[in-house]
Structure formats: C-alpha cells, structure tokens
Design a protein that fits this description.
Distance between the termini: 40 Å
Order of helices and strands: HHH
Strand content: under 5%
Number of strands: 0
Shape: globular
Length: 79
C-alpha cells in the first residue's frame, strides 16, 4: 500500500513542480519519476536542515521542493 502512496504523491509532486516552473508537465510517467526522485532529493535536503514530515501534506511539500530542485539543476545543466 505504501508503494501506491509513493506513486500518487510522486505524480502529484511532479505535475505541480512542472506547473510551478511554467512547464507543461512531463506526461504521467515523467511526472511520477520526477516526483519520486524529487521526494528523495527533498527528503535528503529537509534532513540536512533538520526538518521532518509526518503527514501526507508534508510528504507532498517535500517531494515538490525536491522536484523543483531537480528541475532547476536539469535546466542549468541543459543551458
């Protein structure tokens, strides 16, 4: 059941990050991948800052922040 939550949160986070960066999103699979990888990155960054999430909204925020970092790094590397 937890795996399903990772996919749903990843898809939502990837889509939201795509919208916040003035993108059109990355398609459903791309959104899921960006969101899941973003969740890992966000969890790592939040851990460095001493922050911890305990609920669904916190997990979504963490994944969106990580996805935005991932998109920002990808944009910098592509230029």
């Amino acid at each position: 059941m937890a795996f399903l939550w990772y996919i749903l949160i990843g898809a939502a986070a990837g889509w939201l990050a795509g919208q916040l960066t003035k993108g059109k999103g990355f398609g459903i699979l791309g959104n899921i991948l960006v969101g899941i990888v973003g969740g890992v990155i966000g969890g790592w960054v939040f851990g460095l800052l001493g922050l911890e999430t305990t609920n669904l909204v916190g997990s979504l925020v963490t994944a969106v922040v990580g996805a935005l970092i991932l998109i920002g790094v990808a944009n910098m590397l592509s230029k």
